[in-house]
């Protein structure tokens, strides 16, 4: 097992090295110093800024310095936009708010979508199946932005006006945090998580239903039914276990995109997460922070691929021998 894990890690390292190199090269196509400084900046001012941020060094020197920062988690270079802070001081506080949205959203959307897909597949062709798939298609067809606007209106304004219950906030306010993790999470993060779950469920439910329906005609399902197993046991025990490979693939592929996908939620709810931080510093031409966040997101994507391969090997031992 460990040899398999090591092989997958060694396989993905060159991929990540190439990704970081391409990202750094693309960000340097348009001179970042010229974009950051005004058009009236002198050559001396440009040279000073390049020296300050190490852009006067050869590309591969900058590349290896970037890799060293990632490996050692030493993001001590200065932010261009917030010059009194380092890149690490800018990015660090944004990680937890993003995780407070993405991890619960991933967990709830996956569990609910699998259960709904199992119900739909167990009633294939019936009214309940058609109804659930119709709702899923409608959910897929509606814009993310529409769900955010409706969620803010009904979850915050309408709920407070009609019931007097001030359960959710539409703007994150660090000064009003109570210090109670659960209460603060419900107040500022539960509504964005619910919106993210609703948006994801349409796509996920249809995918999981297709996977489950393909498994229902397998020999082991007919054998389980012939032995007298109940429908619930067949669906939740026998079928679900054998459908784990595509389910794992879907979940792990979704994980990195949820972080970027939370950008709209972070912007509209004023949550200081990684997506909002990336957008803010891109708009302000902060080359250092933009480059680092993109490299971190690439690392998350690579790690999710490695974790996917490891979970494959755990679920299906035959994968280790391939």
Q: Care to give the gist of this entry?
A:
This protein is 76% helix and 0% strand.
Number of separate helices: 15
How far apart are the first and last residues' alpha carbons, in Å? 12 Å
The number of distinct structural domains comes to 2
**Rg, please?**
24 Å
What is the highest CATH level, the class of the largest domain?
Mainly Alpha
What CATH calls the topology of the largest domain is MetI-like fold
Q: How much of the polypeptide forms β-strand, as a percent range?
A: under 5%
Structural class: mainly alpha
Order of helices and strands: HHHHHHHHHHHHHHH
Sheet with the most strands, sense and barrel status: none
Based on the coordinates given, report the CATH architecture of the largest domain.
Orthogonal Bundle
In words, what does this structure look like?
- It is globular and about 80 Å long.
- By secondary structure, it is an all-alpha fold.
- It contains 15 helices and no strands.
- The longest helix has 36 residues.
- The mean pLDDT is 83.
- It has 2 domains: 111 residues, no CATH class; 190 residues, MetI-like (MetI-like fold).
Topology at a glance:
Layout: H1 2-27, H2 32-36, H3 43-52, H4 59-72, H5 87-122, H6 127-141, H7 144-163, H8 181-188, H9 190-216, H10 219-226, H11 231-242, H12 244-261, H13 263-268, H14 274-283, H15 287-315
């Amino acid at each position: 097992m460990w040899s398999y894990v090591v092989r997958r890690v060694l396989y993905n390292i060159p991929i990540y090295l190439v990704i970081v190199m391409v990202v750094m090269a693309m960000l340097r196509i348009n001179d970042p110093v010229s974009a950051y400084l005004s058009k009236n900046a002198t050559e001396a001012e440009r040279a000073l800024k390049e020296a300050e941020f190490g852009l006067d060094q050869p590309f591969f020197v900058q590349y290896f310095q970037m890799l060293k920062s990632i490996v050692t988690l030493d993001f001590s270079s200065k932010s261009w936009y917030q010059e009194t802070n380092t890149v690490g001081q800018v990015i660090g506080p944004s990680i937890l708010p993003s995780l407070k949205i993405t991890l619960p959203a991933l967990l709830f959307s996956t569990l609910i979508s699998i259960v709904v897909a199992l119900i739909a597949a167990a009633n294939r062709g019936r009214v309940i199946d058609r109804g659930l798939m119709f709702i899923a298609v409608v959910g897929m067809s509606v814009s993310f932005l529409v769900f955010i606007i409706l969620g803010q209106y009904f979850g915050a304004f309408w709920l407070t006006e009609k019931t007097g219950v001030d359960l959710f906030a539409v703007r994150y306010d660090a000064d009003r945090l109570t210090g109670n993790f659960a209460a603060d999470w419900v107040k500022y993060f539960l509504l964005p998580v619910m919106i993210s779950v609703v948006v994801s469920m349409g796509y996920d439910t249809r995918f999981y239903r297709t996977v489950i329906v393909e498994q229902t005609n397998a020999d082991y399902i007919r054998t389980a039914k012939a032995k007298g197993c109940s429908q619930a046991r067949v669906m939740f025990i026998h079928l679900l276990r054998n459908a784990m490979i595509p389910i794992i693939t879907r979940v792990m592929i979704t994980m990195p995109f949820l972080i970027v996908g939370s950008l709209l939620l972070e912007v509209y709810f004023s949550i200081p997460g990684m997506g909002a931080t990336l957008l803010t510093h891109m708009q302000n031409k902060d080359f250092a922070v933009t480059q680092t966040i993109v490299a971190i997101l690439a690392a998350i994507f690579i790690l999710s691929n490695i974790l996917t391969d490891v979970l494959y090997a755990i679920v299906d031992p035959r994968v280790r021998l391939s």
